[in-house]
Design brief:
Two copies of one chain form a homodimer.
Chain A: H1 8-18, E1 24-25, H2 26-32, H3 39-51, E2 55-59, E3 65-69, E4 84-87, E5 93-95, E6 109-120
Parallel strand pairs in A: 4-6
Antiparallel strand pairs in A: 1-3, 2-3, 4-5
Chain A binds a DNA duplex through residues 2-10, 26-27, 30, 37-41, 43-45, 48, 63-65.
Chain lengths: 125, 125
Amino acid sequence: MGVIRKTKSVETLLAIFENNKDAVSAVQLIDLLKEKMNKTTIYRILERLQNDGIVHSFMDKDGLKWYATCHGCSAKQHIDIHPHFQCQNCGKVDCLSVDIKIPMIPNRQINFSQVLLIGKCESCL
Amino acid sequence: MGVIRKTKSVETLLAIFENNKDAVSAVQLIDLLKEKMNKTTIYRILERLQNDGIVHSFMDKDGLKWYATCHGCSAKQHIDIHPHFQCQNCGKVDCLSVDIKIPMIPNRQINFSQVLLIGKCESCL
DNA sequence: ATTACTTTTGCAACCAAGTTGCATTAAGTA
DNA sequence: TACTTAATGCAACTTGGTTGCAAAAGTAAT
C-alpha cells in the first residue's frame, strides 16, 4: 500500500472534491482536466483516494464510474454507504443522505449495497 | 415499434431465459452462443425482448449489463422492479424477491431504482 | 408456391471507458 | 545534494457495446 504523496495532481483532484457536493464522473474529470493531467493519472489517483477512504465510487445507470467525497471513512473501511440519485434527463448524479433499509437475505452474506434512484432532478422537472 | 418475429435466434434466447432463474450477463450469452449467432444479434434481440417486457436489464458492480426474465411486465411498462444480488467472489447474479422501500426524496421525481446487494453467495461462503 | 414487403442477421468497422507496461519525473528523506 | 520510491505521461491495448449496410429470412397476400 503506497503512501499518498501530495503531488500537484492530487491537490487538484482533492480541491475539486472539496468544492463539490455532487458526485463527479471519471469522464467529466478527464474532460475537465485534460490540459492538466493524463487520464491514466486521474484513474490512478482516484483509486488511491478511494483506498484511503477519501472518496467512494459507484456505477451509474449507464455503467460509468462516478466518485464522491466520503464522510467518516478511512483506509480500513468504507462506512459511508448511501443511495445515489441520477437524473435521466441531464445525467447529473448526487449523493442522498437518506437511510435505506437493506433486508436480510437468507443464505447470503451482504457486505455492501449500491442503490441508484433514477428520475428527474429539480432543474429538469 | 417492430413486431418480434419468431426467428431461431429469438427462440434460442427465450429458451435460455425460461430455463434460468438467475440473471445472465450479455458477456455470458455472447460466449455461450458464439457458435450460433453474432454478438450484435444478441444485443439487438435482448433490446427487443426488453422493449416487450419479457426481460429486464441492469448493471452489475463492474458496469456490465445483465438480463433476467420479467414477471408481470409488458411492452407498456416494467413493473417487476426488485433488488439484485451479486457475489463478489464468483460474480453470479440473481434476482431477489424482496421489497425495498424507496423513500420520498424532496424536489425530485423518482421513476425507478436499481438496487444491487453485494456479498457472498451460498456456495462461496 | 411465388411474390412483395419488412424485419432480422452477419460482418466489419468503429467507439468509448478503462487498463497496462515502461521509461521519465518528481516527492520525501537522510 | 543525492538517494530511493512513488507518481506521471504516453502509447498501445483490452473490452463491452454500437453502427451502417448488404444479404438473408419471416410474414402475409396472391
